[in-house]
Every structure is written in structure tokens, then in C-alpha cells.
């Protein structure tokens, strides 16, 4: 294991991964708010455009280097198309009708899908302990969400759309991990956000018509949170975690997303907490411990920028 891998494998990496997943789960409330406004693709387009401009100002002010090769520009743009334009676009559209419980279960398949392809595409070994941890973590999610998943209809089209989004998210992780040169993370975040905004603009106009969003306090606060905390802060943190650790290990923390979502829902929205939630959380925690303690591979080291 390289010193860079140790950075995301130790206590600091674990704490940052937990912070990232908590932030990711916290975005559910503002995402639901903007999705109900009827033009989720327009909201995403505006969100990514503003975030990319703000980040570009930071990159220029700090004199951070832009990618040095056309291939790097293409790969980073591809990440934005997969992780933001496709994943969030599909998720926002699916959440118009899909129950939150079913959506969380579908999203939690991300670590399982990534673990299946990581051995062949990222040279990350799939050990028995890692498999056991991934299955246990997913089982914990199913326990916590089983009672909720059946409370609302889950149309096959919405389920498929959400799953397509998860596949795109896994693809984005592979694209970033296979970058041949260690590009500056601030510049990379700027480019991937801009690429997502450009890609979504024509789709928003085609599928949702002209922009009809009415400015309101709810829209302003939700957008500010999604831009500042998620697109700028959380995205940069995810890049750091991926650069400094095995993708399958880092992604295992995604199992905590619905658990954090339940806690935030109880605190902010007054949603009920069920006895099985504790059992589900215990299974998730045990699964993550197994994944993190599995013997790491020896991926090629990447130079620090």
C-alpha cells in the first residue's frame, strides 16, 4: 500500500469519508425541494453553471494549473457528464415519482457494482472479506429501508432510470481513477461542473421547455446549499478521497447514505425512526469495517500536485 493509499485508509481518510457521505445524504432535502418545482434539469443546469464559474474564479485567483493534455480535458469532462449530468439528472427525474426508500436502496448498489468491475479495471483485488463486507452493508440498507420501500409505488421506468444513474456514477469513478496524470483537483472540479452544465442545457430546454422557475426563498436556499456545500465542497472532497484511496473502499461508505438520510429526515422533517433502523445501522457499520480492513492492493502510485 502506498503512502497515498494510507492517507485515505487511516483515521483521517475515514473521518473525511464519513463527512462526505453525511454531506451527500444532507442534499436529499434541498434536492427534493427543487425536484418538486417541476424543472429539475433546469435546476441542475443552473446549479452546475454557477458552481463552475465560482470555481473558475478560485482557480484563476490561486493560479492553479489547468489540465496539461487534451486527453485529461476529455476525461475530466467525461467524469462530469457521467457523475453530474447523467447520475444526478436521472436521479432528479426519478425522484419525481420514486419513493425515497426505493431510491436509497437503488443508490446503495453503487459499491457493489464498483467492486465487481474494480478487479479488472482498477487492479483492486476482490477479497472474500471485502465481498462479505459489501454484502453485509447492502443487507443493512435493505433492513433499514424495507418497511419504507413498499409504502409508495415504484414504477419500473423510474427504478430503471435511477439504476442507470448509479451505473453512470460507477463509470465516473472509473474515469477519474484512470486519469494518467495527477491534475489539480480545483481545476478538475471546475471543468467537470462546466461540462455537466453544457450537456444539460439543451436537454433541459428540450424536455422541460423554457425556464419557468419562480424565484423564492426555498429555491434560493436550496440552490445555495447544493452549489456551495455539494458542488464545490463535497465534490472536491470526493476527488481527494478517490485520489488517495482504493475506489471500492471509499465507495463502501455510500452504504451510510440512507442511514444518514433517515437521521436527517427525523431531525428536520419529523419522520419516524423504526427499531429495525438500529439493526440496519449495525450491519452497515460492520460491513464497512470489513471492507476497510480487507487487504489492499498495490495500485500504481500517483504523484502529488
Largest sheet: none
Helix content: over 70%
Q: Return Rg in Å.
A: 19 Å
Uncertain stretches of 5 or more adjacent residues: 1-8, 297-305
**Average pLDDT, all residues:** 79
- How many strands? 0
Distance between the termini: 19 Å
Order of helices and strands: HHHHHHHHHHHHHH
Q: From the helix content, strand content and strand pairing, which structural class follows?
A: mainly alpha
Compile the SSE list and pairings:
Layout: H1 3-9, H2 11-26, H3 28-35, H4 40-62, H5 70-94, H6 100-107, H7 110-121, H8 128-149, H9 156-177, H10 185-208, H11 217-244, H12 247-251, H13 256-269, H14 275-293
Helix pairs in contact: 1-2, 1-11, 2-11, 2-13, 3-11, 4-5, 4-10, 4-11, 5-9, 5-10, 6-8, 6-9, 7-9, 8-14, 10-11
List key phrases describing it.
single chain, mainly alpha, disordered C terminus
Q: Would you summarize the structure shown here?
A:
The chain has 305 residues and is mainly α. It has helices at 3-9, 11-26, 28-35, 40-62, 70-94, 100-107, 110-121, 128-149, 156-177, 185-208, 217-244, 247-251, 256-269, 275-293. Residues 1-8 and 297-305 have low confidence and may be disordered.
Please characterize this protein's 3D structure.
- The protein is mainly α and 305 residues long.
- It is 76% helix and 0% strand.
